[in-house]
Amino acid sequence: MKTPARHKGLVLATLCATMFMAMLDNVIVNNALPRIGQQLHSGVSGLQWVVEGYSLVYAALLLTGGTLGDRYGRRRIFLTGLAVFTAGSAAAALSGSTGTLIAARMFQGLGAALLTPGSLSILRHVFTDEKERARAVGLWSGVSALGLAVGPVLGGPIVDAFGWAAVFWINVPIGAAGLLLAARVLPEFTARTRRLDLPGQALSALGCGALVYALIEGPARGWTDTRVLALAAVAALTLSAFLVVEARSSDPMLDLRFFRDRVLTGAALSGFMISFGMFGAAFFLPLLMQDVMGWSPSDAGVAGLPMTAMIVVAAPLSSALTSRYGPRLPLVAGLALCASGLGALSLYGTHAHYAQYVWVLLTMGLGMGMTFTPASITVMRRVDPARAGMASATLNTLRELGGVIGVAVLGAVLGSRLTSTLAGSLQRLGAPSELGRHLPGTVPDGAGALPAPVRDAVDAAFIDALHLALRCGSAALAGAALLVALLLHPPRRLTPPPAGEGPAPRPEGRSTTATRMRK
Predict the structure, then answer these.
(1) DSSP annotation string for 148-164
(2) Average pLDDT, the chain
(3) Are the beta carbons of 354 and 299 closer than 8 angstroms?
(4) Cβ–Cβ under 8 Å, residues 439 and 458
């Protein structure tokens, strides 16, 4: 179905607005957590699930959302997801207890899992010209990344002015307007008539859910906790079974041939690792700014504006580079810039001035912005349109899991180093070693009532542990940059045969997953 030219701008605006809302909701709630804890009498564990309940359902059901869009129509599933997300936002704003709020957040995650895969698929079909499509995806990716970047900036002032429920109410008018506009301008595409891969859907949801749950609970309960180990075992078994089922299925929800294409594999790895390093680091930087450096939540959010600005600048730049040179240059450059930024940030401590390290925030923003668009464009170029929903869901699932795993892994590094360093410092001060156990989450939060020497030791131990975590994230991103550069390296050109001996063989790098999937 060909979309009228006059509607293309409205389609792009609708998809950008709804994706911005979904990405914004991932992070904006962090600023509201202290007020939620006060008014709903939530403990630390409850507040953690207010944040992670969304990610748990979102990551577990993204593949299912992509498959449902391919099966029943992407417009229909997109509209359903948007309606569910908007209703979940209203329910979260009206919640009177922590349990109700967590349930509403999970409902939001369900809606986001349904609408996210269809958004990229619709763009692919509406914008058929290659250059026009690249510009549209560049804008869409930039707006999506912008939602993640401005969440902390907007959250503090909104909560201060209107209360914690406002971070959820803000989604309701956007979602309602998006529903009305999407129902009028979004085209529908022919749905596939094959049967659903129910075993694959059940195994993927159970496996991803168990994995994310184990990673969320691991830092708090301990990695040797019986429940954590049991969930990790369930995740390993079910995800292994999922791969076996998908390999044997005649109509899988995740076609494993996706990963036979080294370019697609490189793009997916880039998305996973950027989320691993940057989301993991971003989880701890507010602790540094607020608990150690004494900044207010609003000031800490405003400090991130340079990073936000660079993401906006980098998105169209990376789109142009991808169209001209392919995805290798922007993806490798983005990973390298983020690796450099995290490594450089580990050189600054408590007494650093903002002007000294603002260049690091600019570097990380540029690196993040360089990776979002090329990965999305690569998926659209190299995957059969009938599998676009599955491919988009795969990419987004890996991004989401990368963030969750990054927080867990870098958090484990930080927590282990903090515990050992703080124990030695307290022993030298003659303070009881048990004192460190009473610090909430083993971080400086709540340590203001401690004697000055002890608080200084806590701050120093936290800085040391954060620096180690940042360097680990930097090393992981640097390794990913090297691996992606190898995966996306163009194959050696074959020498054309002499005249009269037939056409030159087609270079391997030009074949696509789309071609192979049709065979």
Answers:
(1) HHHHHHHHHHHHHHH-T
(2) 77
(3) no
(4) yes
pLDDT band at 293 (very low <50, low <70, confident <90, very high): confident
Spatial neighbors of 136 by CB under 8 A, at least 6 apart, are 8, 12, 123, 126, 127
Question: In what helix (H) or strand (E) does residue 94 lie, and over which residues does it extend?
Answer: none
Alpha helix stretches (DSSP H) within 288-327: 297-302, 305-325
32 DSSP 8-state letter: G
- Give the model confidence (pLDDT) of 63-120 as tens digits: 778 778 777 778 888 899 999 999 999 999 999 888 899 999 999 989 988 887 777 7
CA distance 483 to 357: 29
Collapse the DSSP code of 274 into the 3-class scheme (helix H, G, I; strand E, B; otherwise coil) and give the result: helix
Q: State the angle between helix axes of 198-221 and 388-429 in degrees (0 to 180), rounded to the nearest 10.
A: 10
Long-range Cβ contacts of 412-416 (<8 Å, 24+ apart)? 412/218, 412/219, 412/223, 413/465, 413/468, 413/469, 413/472, 414/284, 414/465, 414/466, 414/468, 414/469, 415/219, 415/442, 415/465
pLDDT at 464 over 80: yes
Which whole-number Å values give the CA distances from 241 to 238, 247, 254, 335, 438, in the listed order? Answer: 5, 10, 13, 32, 42
Q: In one letter, which amino acid is 66?
A: G
Classify residue 289 by its DSSP letter.
Answer: I
Of the chain, the percentage scoring pLDDT greater than 70 comes to: 78
Q: pLDDT of 148-160, one tens digit each?
A: 667 767 777 787 7
Residue 192 pLDDT class (50, 70, 90 cuts): low
Place of tokens 């908007």: 86
Say whether 115 sits in a helix, a strand or coil: helix
CB atoms within 10 A of CB 352: 13
pTM: 0.71
Give the whole-angstrom CA distance, residue 412 versus residue 52. Answer: 17
Q: Smallest Cα–Cα separation from 279: which of 42, 32, 55?
A: 55
Of 138, 483, 120, 129, nearest to 322 by C-alpha is 138
Does position 172 have pLDDT exceeding 60, yes or no? yes
8 A C-beta contact, residue 288 and residue 466: yes
Q: Which of 190-194, 485-489, 515-519 has the highest mean pLDDT?
A: 485-489
Element (H, E) at 506: none
Q: Report the alpha-carbon distance of residue 363 to residue 370 in Å, rounded.
A: 11
Average pLDDT of span 248-269 = 81
Letter string b/e over residues 203-233, b meaning 16 or more CB atoms within 10 A of that residue's CB: bbbbbbbbbbbbbbbbbeeeeeeeebeebbe
What are the DSSP E strand ranges found in 239-287?
none
Question: What pLDDT is stored for residue 438 in this prediction?
Answer: 42
d(CA 386, CA 391): 10
Other beta carbons less than 10 A from residue 363's beta carbon: 23
